Model the fold of this input.
Amino acid sequence: MAKYLKKGLSSVGSDAANVEVQQTVAKIIADVRQRGDAAVRELSDRFDGWSPQDFRLSQSEIDPLVASVSGQTIEDIRFAQAQIRNFAEHQRAALKDIEVETLPGVRLGHRNIPVSSAGCYTPGGRYPMVASAHMTIVTAKVAGVERIIACTPPTKGKPQWTSGSSRVRQVRAASLSNFSCSSDRQCRIKTPYVSRRGRIPVGLAVF
Done:
């Protein structure tokens, strides 16, 4: 007879859990939208015990974090980033600008233009998802995005460093939805996009 070590939720139970999660996240987003940074700080303290003076990591905070990582891990990260960057560059090269004269004096075309700012989120709940940083930050850089802000939650009350971004903030996903805008007025885009037409996601079309 088969012995179940763990059983999944029934469809009814799964639907109920999904509704509960959606309602919880919706409340968090609404709170952040209404109260801005004050709500972000309260939520961060509640969920992670993390309430620093500034959510943005300084270079003096980043340096010891990098130093705590083994040399082999650093090399593995560099190797992974090199592979992702290489493929992203080939994909970016495949996107061509066009301009044609369809009738005398009538010129049509399109251009692929990187956004000026991009917000990248790296999950880090139970386990840091390092690959998410590679797939968003490295690819946004290849796309030509000038300003990249990375957000990732702290682990056990301590900050994490997200390699490659110009700015790193320590905050969870649900409260991130409005955090980039409320804390940094110039950051208006949460997901990197390329091209003025078609809203082509960087992660799909460019890299």
The first helix runs from residue 11 to 35. The mean pLDDT is 75. Residues 116 and 146 are 5 Å apart (CA to CA). The domain at 59-206 is CATH 3.40.50.1980 (Rossmann fold).
